[in-house]
Amino acid sequence: MAEPLTQRPTPIRPRARTRDRLGAVLRRLAGAVFVLWAVATLTFFAVRLIPGDPAQAILGGPGSQTSPEALAAVRAEYGLDQPIWVQYLQQLGRLATGDLGRSYGLNQDVGPLVLAQLGGTLVLAVTSLAVAWVLALTLATWSTGRGRLARRIGSGLEIVAAALPHFWLATVLIVLFSVWLGVLPPISTSDARGLVLPVLTLAVPLAGFLGQVMRESLLTALESPFVLSARARGESERGVFWRHALRHAALPAISLSGWAFGSLISGAVVVETIFARPGLGRTLLTAVTVRDVPVVVGVVMVVAVAYILMTIATDVASRIADPRPRTEAGR
Amino acid sequence: MSELEIQAAVPRRTNVAGRRRPSLAEVLAALLALFLLTAAIAPRLLAPGDPLAIDPLSAFQAPSVAHWFGTDESGRDIYTRVIDGARDSLVIGVTATLIGLGLGVVLGTIAGTLGAAVDFTVNRFLEVLFAFPGLLLALLFILVFGPGPATAIVAVGLSTAPGYARIIRAQLIRVRSSAFVEAATVQGLSGRRILTRHVLPNTLSPLLVLGTLGIGQAIVWAAALSYLGLGAQPPAAEWGAMLSAGRTYITSAWWMSFYPGLFIVLTAVCATYIGRAIERRMRHA
C-alpha cells in the first residue's frame, strides 16, 4: 500500500538540464518548419481547387480575348505545363529560397511587394497590442478590490469592448473625432496622429478580451497561498499586488498574445481598408477580390511565419514571467 | 419578524438549489434576446413598414420621430431595415456557429478517442490551421470558392472550427480520466458503452455555452466579410451589408452606419451574457 511515498525525486544534473533545454528548442524549431511546410502544401492544393485556367487568369480573367499562343507562353513561363507534383516541388523549392513568385495583376514580384507592406502592418499591430495591454491592465487593476459593483462595471465594459466590430468602431471613431470634433485625420497619414484612430480601433476590442482573462486570474492570484505567504512575510499591500499578484495575472494574457496577434492581423484587413492605410491587410483584401493568387499565398505565408515567431516569443515570455519548472503534461 | 418569515425570506436571494438570482444585466440580455428573436421571426410586428420601400424625397433624413433611425440614400427607413435584417444576421451567425461546432466536435472527438497516433496527427493539423489566424482562413476559402453569402457562412464556420476542436478535445480527455468513468470501467462496461453513455454526453454538455458565446463572434465576422464586400451584397438588409452601404456617406449620414452596427454589438453582448448565465447554472446544477 504505502510504498513509494518516500521516493525521492531524481536529482537533475545541470548538464542534463542544458541538454533537455536544447532538445526543447530543437523540437520547437522542427515543429515550426513542419507547420510552414504544411501551410505551403495546404495553400498550394487549395489554390488548385479554384475553377478555371490559371493561365487565363494571369492574362486578365475569363472575359479577356487570348490567343492559344499567348496561353501556351504563359503556361511555359509559370511552369503550368509541368505535372502537378513537379509544380509542387518547384513551389516548395522557390519558397525555401524566399521566392514568393510573381503577381498576376501587378506585374511585380510578390516577395518585395509583401515586404514593403509588412512594416506598416507590424507597426499597427505591435502598437495596438501594447495599447490593448495597457488598457486591459488599467481596467483590471482598477476594478479588482473595489467591491462587487466595480467588478460588474469592469466586466460589463470588457464584454461590450470585446463585442465591438472593428468596422463599426472605426466608423464611430471617424465620425466622432474627424467629422464632429475635427481633431484627428479620418485617413491614415504617415505621422503619429494618423495612427491614433486605427490603433484605438484595434486595441479596444482586444483589451476587452485580454481584460476578462486578466481580471479572472488576478482574482485567483489574490486568493492563492503565495499571496498569503507574501503577506505573512510582511510585504506591503502594494508590494503584494504589483510584485506577486499582477505577475501571476499577466501569465494567461501573455500566452493569449499569440492569438491576439493573429486577430490583430485579421483586424488589420478591415482597419487598413477603412483608413486607407497601406499594409498587408489591404494588399490581401485587394488580392482576394481580384483573385491574384500568388499575392494571397505570399501574404498568407508571411503571416504564418510571423504568427509562428510570435507564438515562440510568447512561450519565451511566459517562461520568463513564470520561472517555475514545468512538466510536459502540465503545460 | 417570526422565524418562519425569515426562513421564507432567505431563499429569495439564493434559492434552495443554490442558484443565484439573475443579475440585472442578465435580465436585460434576456429581454433583448426576446426582442431580436421576435424581429427575426415576425419583423412586421415590430416594424410594420416595407424595408425596401423607396421614397427619394425623404432621403438622408436624420433620426426623428417619423424615422427613428433616419433614412438612407433612397429614403428607405433604417429602423425597418435593421429589424428586417435581424433574421439574415441571426441565421448567418447561428449557421456559421453550427458549422464550426460540428467540425470542432468531429475533429475533437476523433483526436480524443482514436488513440495516440490519431491524436498526434489531428493536433498537428490543428496547429497548421491555427497558423491561418482569424479572417485569413476565411479569406483563403473565399479566394477558392468565390465571394457570396453562402461562402461567407462556411468560411466563418471553418475558421472557428480549430478553436472549438481544441476545447472539445481537452474536455474529452478531462472527462475520460474522471472518477465516474473509472467506476464504469471497473463495473465492466464495454469501451463503446462508456464512450457513448458516459464520456460523450459529459463532453458535449458545454457545447450549449460555447455555441451561445460563439454566435456573437460569428455574427461580427460574417458582418465583417459583408462589409468588405465578400459576403451578403448591399441591397440585402443584412447588418454588415447595410454598414457597407453606409460607408460612402459616413461624413454626412452617420446614422446609416451607426444603427446596424449598434445591433451587431447588442446581439454579441446579449449572446455573451446569456452564454455566461447558462454556464454558471450548469456549473451549479
Task: Please explain how this structure is put together.
The complex is a heterodimer of chains A (about 325) and B (about 280). Chain A is mainly alpha-helical. Chain A folds into 2 domains: about 30-95, no CATH class; about 110-325, MetI-like fold (Orthogonal Bundle). Chain A is about 75% helix and about 0% strand. Chain A has helices at about 15-50, 55-60, 70-80, 85-95, 110-145, 145-165, 165-180, 195-220, 225-230, 235-275, 280-290, 295-320. The longest helix of chain A is centred in the last third of the chain and has 38 residues, at about 235-275. Chain A is flat and about 85 Å long. Mean pLDDT of chain A is about 80; it is low at about 1-5 and about 325-330. With about 280 residues, chain B is mainly alpha-helical. Helix content of chain B is about 70%, strand content about 0%. Chain B contains 12 helices and no strands. The longest helix of chain B has about 35 residues, at about 80-115. Chain B is elongated, with a radius of gyration of 23 Å. Chains A and B meet through helix 1, helix 6, helix 7, helix 10 and helix 11 of A and helix 5, helix 6, helix 10, helix 11 and helix 12 of B.
